[in-house]
UniProtKB/TrEMBL annotation, chains A, B, C, D, E, F:
Signal peptide: none annotated. It is an enzyme of class 5 (isomerase). Its EC number is 5.1.99.5. GO terms for molecular function: amino-acid racemase activity; hydantoin racemase activity. It catalyses: D-5-isobutylhydantoin = L-5-isobutylhydantoin; D-5-benzylhydantoin = L-5-benzylhydantoin; a D-5-monosubstituted hydantoin = a L-5-monosubstituted hydantoin. This is Hydantoin racemase.
Length: 246, 246, 246, 246, 246, 246
């Protein structure tokens, strides 16, 4: 099985981190390709960053369609471009936020999210609403760490995340914690050990969900609103996206 | 990996059907044990049947705990005894209704459920509400087939299910269909071929979700409300359930 | 009128407490039978305890059907086996949690719940969601008292409940408090006097709702999903539950 | 016990109908006073009619406070002036819409409403939302009968209501029907017999709920937002409503 | 364009304050008439005050209909009589609570409300639910100031409002604040400057929404439940409201 | 006042249509600039089209920031890039879907949407959920018309829209209809006349809301999650989006 894990930002160090986390968790028969867009933001910390990164995500999907891909993972906690990506392929496409939410609800009745910056908590809230998990999430917390600091100042950042997770454990009446950033993928075990309750991480969760769907023979429905987009002309620098009538 | 698939009713033919469906979908390294309670209803078609069957489900969990079980599946669409079962083990426990709902939302934006009897649609509705999928499910439909007829009059029952699925496809503005009975496990491909959109079945979905959680090293949270029940005396014919102080 | 008040646990002291509370509140013409299952947990403090106790509840309903019962009360705050119980009789069946919620919304716009153990707050939350009262309840609070301590260490337990109720009064912006355990039935007036706002208790509320429904000539609907369960065989030690075709 | 049943409109024939329905259902020790405002609309079929009638309702509460009243019923399905009425008394105040909703959810999992005019269905919808019963009500139906026609052309009106109730029974997947107008109080048994499932009527339901609350010693909370209004001057023709500082 | 701004209470000083705020914000071509009922409460701080004031609101609408009015504003944060008022005219009618909510959601993803008295927070909560903004409002806060103190002890009251607004800014994770009282209209800029985030006020918001709707040629729909009330007799002191058949 | 109306697609005929509709409705002092991205889809009929168009929307915002723009309108019914656009400016940014929803709720209690293609109804549903209007919208209907057919085969397309609007009027129990495509802007009056109830169109609604916000001195909150994005590098063909530290 070939799973393409798409890091929507363009920081190759993070792409590697995400790829390694994916490979560590992947089943024996699963091959992981970790990729990133050729252009876009080096980190995603706003609605604007998300909007730009979504274009790169769709490009990576199209690239994957020429590379015998069985499933895709979008490895940014805002699930940028998720529904657009699904329109472009028959393969399953999993966002790491939704993946973590699904897994968390299977092992606990309530969870809290610990993410990076306060300004991105609204993105998680909107996803919780759209996916149906608003009442399963007690609180969306931010450790106030810029995403790239997860790479650069590892110890300090890790400490602040652990502190916030402990506050969630002690104050939120929860059974598990969801990590709200793809860049936290390699920290999961450390955090879980330090906090003492299950910590759910999205990249790893999404890889296993992707394997599960492929194993079930289930792909993105091409019946209804996720069918391939209609043939259409694109103009200007997006002209290459024009779709011929089949 | 050892997954125990619990058929909450006591019809061994259905236990076999469910076990075979589970084995067909299981990963190479996964061993499936299909079991059923020593006593209980031969099918589950009411709140009362569910209530009695839940006792058997908890017994099968306890049996599994003495049999090196890595994960459990509760193979009745009402997910009977799910939260009680989770309290009894560190392993993941997956209900087939929740499993199908989760998978359906990963491949489509909206789905409908096709179940057996009209009187059980309320059970599905309550689960949709508790799990957060109310707005993802367009409609809960019943083919008006007693559960055991799925075994006995295969062709006729299959035909009515397919007819109802086609109505769902044509009327409900959906992308996928969820089959609302564990007894339909072996019919999934046939129905999907006949209806022409993805059909999500719970037993197979739950097995793959169980494999995914075990692969992630995630088990039922023992922190908070799913912790092991407190030590306590049980009386009368439930005396054997008394829990000593550890 | 004959009302059967079912204590789902098997602690006879609590059955007596509940029975006395019911008798004190019952109308002149109302006869109260307080009963408990022949076997089961001595207290209900987990999903597992609830699951086992639900079997006893259904047995008590069947016993009541042979004892000219006009209405039933399920006297545990989780309303265990409520819908199953309703399927077994034409009489009204009232859970004490739902009863307290209904009454609280008739005398105040918002209420808080004060229950025993933190781990059972999720049970109240699920009931609030299913019954529709999520937004009427400001907060579910726990006094961290094991249920049986209500019997054993009365004063100390009472003090902690009153403290928690006062916190609810001062912090939650509410008009009334719902007591979240059948074992608190005899404490209602004391707590209300100490806290200074209306305190709604479930056993007494359920008895009056049962009288009201009987007075209205309304019983559990036998049309639709609460109709008597279909004829069916039960096996093993539940064989006695087998239902003949009428 | 003295219950004041307030007909918010000024049609004395309807006040009598409502009073008789209340007396028929009242417990032996309950005395019913049926009253109506000295001025206002002869029937309530719009938001405007409701707004005006609410003034009369509050006058009847004040009249009741000088007449040793133990509980109040507001006998119009829109529950006009309910929260204002509650502010004016320590006694319980029950609206017939909320009363019918509460009772219907105790005997069935889902119900439909059959009311008079299509334009008033929005009033019922808003109440369902505020009270928390939106998901318990499958559908709000109108028989397209002006309220006073219930008095004037009894047979014809009755026939149309029964027809609409039968459609609800056959199409809505429900267990009970709620009658959406106080003027239907005397028709309840006839309709229930004709339709064959439980029919819940508000006036009778409210009387029994009022008796239940009084029996419980529960009155409208004077703690929080339903406390007596603050002292205040009223001007012009509402000057008589000025409240002195106690 | 002629907009009638209705102050539902009878304190002329507040009517002037509101009128001035409306005139300051009105477009060049807009004429503002600020009016108040001939009788009613001098301030609105309870459900009862609201109920009485709603009658005056409808009178002012009828007065406006004889005065070539293009749009109406109901200048009390509880939007008293809003739907009744809409039934009486083809012109748009805007409540200041809804107006502020709409505007706040256009400039921020989440807001908090700062109102006068704690007992009126429930009124705002009910409106948030009915209008659909429950999840957009983080918190409803009260500065514990009687409405008329806004006029009488300006500085002190202003200080307490600003303090509460700062708490909202620092604790609620919001982007804007909604002022919860028409009497705060003239304080908006001062508060906004002191707090440092956008402050949305209802009277000014409603005037601009009214201008917008008139500019669009949109008025209250006379199709469906906001159509003019049916012809009907009113009795007693409301006899003058009787509606002839057109 | 200078309002920039952004047509997210690249069909200049539609940009002109939208610009004319905006100019017809604009206040005397309002100058309308109608613009479109330099590249992108010629119409927006899928999640993918939306994702690409959002990039163009953000470019048009940045262009507007160099052109003394007081407010922005995003003239596609999916409100593509709305939150990203808000991050880029202190000016108000209004989407035409949200604008139409807000206006429709001010003149009716319930509305239905009539849009172009069935596959885009999910986009409207997601917006209704996020904005809070789910329960105000009875139904999202599609006339099954590709967007560009609105330009090309005017009469035929118009007829089908009117037919669908009439079905909404007759079946949905509504007070108004929302047109679900910016390309319908010039058809509003014709449709409203043909259907006989208020028809709310987004472009015109958004222009008036933009004028209202500017008139109020309210702009997008720069406090919290809509603040300007943090300084950051962008790579590849998005390098020009890199943000220096101020």
């Amino acid at each position: 099985m070939h799973i393409r894990v798409i890091n929507p930002n363009t920081t190759s160090a993070m792409t590697e981190t995400i790829g390694e986390a994916a490979r560590r968790i992947a089943a024996p028969g699963t091959r992981i390709t970790a990729s990133q867009p050729s252009g876009g933001p080096v980190s995603i910390e706003s609605h604007f960053d998300e909007t730009i990164s979504a274009v790169g995500v769709t490009e990576e999907i199209r690239a994957g369609e020429n590379d015998a891909t069985d499933a895709y993972v979008i490895a940014c906690f805002g699930d940028p471009g998720l529904l657009a990506a699904r329109e472009l392929t028959r393969a399953p496409v999993i966002g790491i936020a939704e993946a973590a939410f699904h897994m968390a609800t299977l092992i606990s009745t309530r969870f809290s999210i610990v993410t990076t910056l306060g300004r991105t908590t609204i993105i998680a809230e909107h996803l919780l609403e759209q996916y149906g998990f608003r009442h399963h999430c007690r609180r969306v917390r931010a450790a106030d760490i810029p995403v790239l600091d997860l790479e650069e100042e590892g110890e300090a950042a890790l400490g602040r995340i652990i502190d916030e997770c402990r506050r969630a454990r002690d104050e939120d009446n929860i059974g598990s914690i969801v990590l709200g950033c793809g860049g936290m993928a390699e920290l999961t075990d450390t955090i879980s050990d330090a906090v003492g309750l299950p910590v759910v991480e999205g990249v790893t969760s999404a890889v296993k969900l992707a394997e599960a769907l492929v194993g079930l023979g289930l792909g993105t429905s091409k019946y209804g609103d996720l069918a391939f987009p209609r043939p259409k002309a694109f103009t200007g620098r997006f002209e290459h996206l024009s779709r011929e009538t089949p």
